[in-house]
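stuck on this one:
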Amino acid sequence: MPRTRAAFASFGPISQPPNRLASAPMSGPATADKAELKAPRGLSPLLAQSFPIAAAVVLVCGTALLALLTSGSNAPVMLTLLGLFAALGVFLMFGLIAGHIRIGERTTEIDLLQGVFEQIDQGTLITRGDGLIAYGNPASADLLGVKSASDLRLLEDAFSPDEDANAALFRLSRSVERNRARSEDIFVPARAGLGTGRWLRVSAKPFARAHVDTNLRGAALWTLTDITRDKSFEAQTRSNLERELDTFRGMPAGFFVAEASGRLTYANDQLCRWLGITWDEGDRELMLSDIASGDSASLIASIIERAGTDTQRVELDLVTDGGLAWPATLVLQTNEGATEHTASSVSAIVLPQVATHAAQITGAGHSTDALGGFFKSAPFGIATITAEGEIGGANTAFARLMVSSETAEGSDARRTFSRATTADGAADIHAALDEALAGRANIAPIEITVGDAGQFTRRLFFATTGRDDAEGRSAVVYVIDATEQKALEQKFAQSQKMEVVGKLAGGIAHDFNNVMTAIIGFSDLLLGTHRPGDPAFQHIRSIRTSAERAADLVRNLLAFSRQQQLSPKVLQVDDVIGDVLQMLRQTTLRDSIDLKINTARDLWLVEADKNELERVVVNLSVNARDAMPDGGRLTVRTRNVSERESQRMSKDGMTVGEYVLIEFEDTGTGIPADVLAKVFDPFFTTKDVGKGTGLGLSTVYGIVKQTGGYIFADSVEGKGTTFRVYLPRHEPPAEADGPALAEEKADEPATPHRDLTGVGRVLIVEDEDAVRMFATQALKRQGYDVHEACDGYEALDLFDDEDFAVDLVVSDVKMPEMDGPTLLKELRKTKPDLRFVFVSGYPADAFSKTLADEDNYTFLPKPYSLAQIAATVKEQLAV
């Protein structure tokens, strides 16, 4: 039987009278009047309970039988019985010695538990499921003011007729029903056994249902603790506090107490009258932000957080209930929390400021000469505006930042602001100035543009001086230069825009290039089967040209987003731009445009992709041509830029170093200032619809940036534009200078008449059916034995055949199930010398990080033509 059940078993069945146990003696443990014979240990509970009775019956029967036998002459039988009794005596003796049989007083577990409860000072009650009291210790009787706990049948009998007590007992009972513990503070009224009333903390805790008998479901343990002394101390403390607060309530100065959270715990009558607020503890919760401006509330909160003991004096603006600023002087004293449950707070005495803010700044006469030296030399602008709307005083920084000479004392502030900025900016300033002169607090800052072209940004902050003085209410305006911050914000927005376009370009490049590869490839196959004089030949060529233009559009997007594949090599800039400009002079530039090329001697080397650098030269030259529709002069210059010279340009975000400069200067129409800031934006163009994609200059920007360089544009309307491209200097080892440039000469692209036929076995792995079909037919036409696979797993299945062997694998990078790099790693495990060519619409950087440095492969970007894939395969098989 579990302990709880054994304990409650002594209470008797649930149907027994409720006070049966409560009426039991409470002076100590219950004892038996007679010595009892206990059963040996190890017997079942039923046998243990019936053992003394059985022993008594055996002894009585044995005695009767002995008397019966001794009346006759049956001596042998009598001797036998005496032997049995002797054996029984020996057994009893050994049982006593071993401890299995004890003769003495019996103490049960419930007796021990009851004895413990009766010795403790805390009141203890046990109630049954129906709410009746089953047990109560003497301490509970003393606390409840009754002679004995047996006098109570229900808990309500001890607290009636108090309604609050009954409500608390109801909540406790409901918690017990829900198998939850709960505590309540209940007042016990005075009665005959209780001289005065007292406060008790009553706690109820249900018995765990898993450990009680079904008849005792709902039983609970109640504990009673006397907290009268604590309640008295609390009441005394509250009374003392109320007396102290009464003192503060009638004082002629303002007073409030605020916690670290910003909640006001007290505000006296004088402060409420000054600010026009009402203080009622039962009303809505007041916060520091309700009586102080944003900065002022933050200052007070920071003082509370520091929790120092020094008294601090601060001057700040409070806020009235109508939203008006009220200048005040605060004497603050912080109070650290006494316990972990007591929050830190600040006590503040509030006094109105004797002088207004304007008088402190400008003096009684509002003269500029009265400004303090620290305001005159401040790096930000500051000025006071009188109630009549005139400038009462201003420092030199104000005149400089507002770019206006009308800052003299007595000048009209509205006229000054209107002349300094745009109409919209002036309207915002006038509205804020009206609020400041009306005494409003927390006025939002205003951002305006000033200057002839609106090239400067200023941020204005307005504040009121608060109460009226002899000269009326005035305002204060602070001006800071936000031009640089605005430029940084625009650059950040531009970089985010570039990132979005780059992600878009990278996302569509692969699928779009697959389509273009199929169109260009099949066009090449058709052109090979038609003669130039065939009518279909020109149509097919037009299809191929359009596909190349579409592919070039994707390349421009990738170049702008800096995701195109570059093949950087050591270049001499003069050689590259000289060849391109000579070609442009003959094909693109009109005769009305005079092309001048000025190159410096001993020009440094650069490391860049030759094809991409040629695109930069072509795009900037074409842009200059379009800016000179009536003709003009295009001058292209090159020179070295030293590290010292680059230091002067570091303010534009340029890293200090040595560069090679390429300048493109035209005498065209020029670019307006508002347009010049957007020339490198993608899809931005000033040309008519259908005459430009808006990707020319953005592509140039992306190529230059990906090369590690910088590009800047300067323009004057009606005079022309200059683009400056800075490419970082490349310094190879001295012994490698000659071979590097010689190697560049030897690496010229193949001529159209090059023999592209070959012999060998090639495996094409491509998930796009059209691209795989084109590549297969193109290589078969060149004489190769070609096999196909639609993904990596099918390619591995082909290699499982021991007789299958190829000389080269041409694989797409992005494929379902298994991509190209994974296929390369799997095949190299068994065939380490297998040649590999990757083709993809993504740049090589997008997947090269997943491969080891020792993995040998060649990359062919999509879209590729018939000649390009044939040349790549032949070069790899020739190695």
Summary: The two ends are 91 Å apart (CA to CA).
